[in-house]
Design a protein that fits this description.
The chain is an alpha+beta fold. The chain has two domains: 277 residues, no CATH class; 161 residues, no CATH class. Strands 8-9-10-11-13-12 form a six-stranded antiparallel sheet, with helices on both faces. It has a three-stranded antiparallel sheet with strand order 2-3-5. The chain starts with 11 loop residues before the first helix and ends in a 10-residue tail after the last helix.
Length: 469
Amino acid sequence: MLKKELTPSPTFTESHARGRRARSALPLGDHASFDPAALEFDAVEVLERQAPSRVAELLPIRYGRMVSSPFAFYRGGAAVMAAHLAGAQHSGLRVQLCGDAHLSNFGLFATPERNLTFDLNDFDETLAGPFEWDVKRLAASVVIACRGRAFGATEGGAIVRESVGAYRKAMRSFAAMPNLAVWYARLDAGHILEELRGQTSQAGLRRTEAAIAKAPTRDSMQAFRKLTQLVDGEPRIVSDPPLVVTIEDLFPVDRGRGIFDQMGGLLAAYRDSLPYERQRLLDQYRFVHMARKVVGVGSVGTRAWILLFEGLHSGDPLFLQAKEAQTSVLAPYLGDSEYSNQGERVVAGQRLIQAASDIFLGWQRTNGLDGIDRDYYIRQLRDWKASADVETFTPAGMAAYARVCGWTLARAHARSGDRVAIAAYLGKKDTFDQAVAEFAFAFADQNDRDHAALRAAIDERRIQAQEGI
């Protein structure tokens, strides 16, 4: 994704020298810098600038979810952090960024071979950019999560340094590995349990084991049992407003039928984005129903649909999710993606940095009810997904999880960027770890102020929030 044509790759020596030059231009200690006094915006303004492109009636849910805690605000505030990061000097060592690499955007997923692997999730903001932007996003989330658990500053500092240190050490390890070894590297569920065993409480370990055991049950069949019922012998999604609203409940009958028929045509365009063998697999299903669904925290208000398909019979369902892909929040500072279709941007980025992606991952563009073209990416609604509840971690458990996330982020960056240059830039000492930890604490303070500003804006009725949903 970072190269548009095949060009000679630099040698190890050339890449190593590039990393050392980058360190001379931006010393590692400078990553500690964060000056909130230099800001020319406030967080609520940034959020409000995102509002016009979203479904207005859903925005109060977004704000209500974000104001529930500083960590929830941080989860929804990728645009806010991007604006902060853009004001600082960067290394110039570019990778395919996740764009929103916080602790809750990692989890367990099924590979096409039906194995559980630990990886990044949520690539809505993915874009090429300086590697440290993702590292700082992860590090600040560690500090904010530690504060949410009332860990002391000493404990929190040690944990965030361990996370960044795991990234640095993993990158140095990847720099010494052959290209194919890096490409095939992954963490499976067994590795996660081994990392946590002895590092967390027995209760925490049991919760993790239960989540891993439950993951294979989270599939289209489980979604089918939870979200549908039979109507005149046909499976139909059940409305649960405002979080799930069927096409019939959103629009008058004639208009809803027209939208349903239009979606059928658009799915043909999505089909073309899939590899040939997966096109043939999709052809074995019949599109039967659709509903709008509210998803995530920061994504609330973007358009998301769940699409129900039926295979051989009603016991053979497939649930896909079509989620709107808007321009990355990083684009104003890092430049536009090479992909004009934002759904394709998300899919290409995910395939590049995730070890194994959903077999139904694809994209499409559609003309909306208001006459505006919108881009979507499509994947299975549920496919053995499991995520950690960071709000239940002990300090030891948080440290173990943060290390795993650091390793995983390094692997993603090693696949997409110049891992030798980044490793040479980071060096053997913990200077980078210390600097990013200092930045993370300063940014966590700013996040507290931004969260308070959102609460004040709600209390002053500057914006409307619907809490508890």
